[in-house]
Write a structure and sequence with these properties.
Length: 258
Amino acid sequence: MRTPIIAGNWKMNKTLAEARTLVSAMRDDLAQLARDGKIEIVLCPPFIAIPQVAELVAGSPIRVGAQNVHWESKGAFTGEIAPAMLNEICDYVIIGHSERRQFFSETDQGVNKKIKAALAHHLKPIVCVGENLAQNEAGQTDALVGAQVRAAFQDISRDDARGIIIAYEPIWAIGTGKAASGAGANAVIGITIRGALADLYGEEIAQAVRVQYGGSVTPKNVAEFFAQPDIDGALVGGASLVAADFVAICQAANPKGR
Ligand code: PEP
């Protein structure tokens, strides 16, 4: 049994004051939904808000994550944040989001280095993979996403692989309001992503790793994704910025949590 994990990626949104308002509005409901351990809920605010959000959810089962990390542990890397700085204040880190790949030139090799650095500092990576529209229409999804998974997991041990979370995020679905179909996302996750993991580590690990879907998830469409056998939760962007929407999405993952 894989425990569903729902993560809210706030991207570059919310001032400290707005972050406080948002967390205060959903904290009690989220804590209630996550209290029995049947789902994990992770809030990923911008770096600057992480300590405040961590303080606001302290003592609850709600977890906190970052949206990026550098692979070096310290030094002359102006503007970057090291994994040792993050593991003092949060538990998860999103790595290789398509916006980082697209706008900040992140590569598969960099993603692999970041995953290793995160693991070395006891941060749980949420690793994003996914194809763009042209690749999707050209029938390249399987090859591209499979290659992204293989590159991300290069030289990562079986034990470490087990704890990594993958987010399948077709780029054409992110922030567009045009979500993938549940069946389509399930096929990419079940066949391509778990297939690549099976090649690398065998079937047991392929079935143990949790894989989220991300891309225009809303309270309206979320049930379609959570009904799929290979989808273990969601990485949520826009809808994680609205307390009622994020609570409703988490509620769909743990309908008995109330
Ligand atoms: C994301 O930011 O990872 C994402 C999936 O965004 P949205 O839910 O807004 O499509």
